[in-house]
Known about the structure:
- With 225 residues, this protein is mainly alpha-helical.
- The protein contains 9 helices and no strands.
- It has 2 domains: 96 residues, no CATH class; 107 residues, no CATH class.
- Helix 5 packs across helix 6.
- The chain is globular.
Amino acid sequence: MRALDRLSIGALLLLAAQPILPLPIAASAVVILAVVQLARAIQQHLVPDRRDLLLVAALALPFVLLAIASLVASDHSAAWAVAERTASLAVLPICLLLMPAPPVGRTLVLDVFSIAAVCLGLYANVGVAWDDAQLFTATARDYREAFATRTGIHAVYAAYYFFVAALIQLHAARERRSTLRWSACAFLLLCGLLLASRMPIIAFACAAPVILFRNDPAEPQSVLR
């Protein structure tokens, strides 16, 4: 395996642990992955397909616009934090869809992300329970504030982490009939519901039935072709 391939795998696995990474480390992983992927694309003389370009533009555009809008925000410190996160979400489709995929199994990357989300949920909820267990029965806003104080992660971002990881484990559990994966899915779902963030819940409610009621779970179809 070439050095660039190993670097791309390492950067991608590091980025997959984003739920528990400090923002500077996650941002650095995105930059490293982008540079390495560009070098691999040049080395392999890759010419992107037009359909892939359109898909990447559609995926990246909302985050590009959000990053641009943050430049004129009244609270510059908060805007910078938003710009850092949204810029990475705009870059990732380019790194993973227009450039040669890192030579690592998809299941490994998704499991790293899920494990990181489980660790985040355990750390946050054990900490909240230790500080004040009554917050679990208080208003959703009080719990979200305690969660954000404990973890340093905005509740909406955390909810997306939990629900995406829950969907990953839901798909895996349906294919492999794994009690461990069903348990992880249930725990992640509970963590997301505790945050009571509307849009992540709606997104999960729309996606979960698609995964549960697919006719051919063993042979997923690509969205690119």
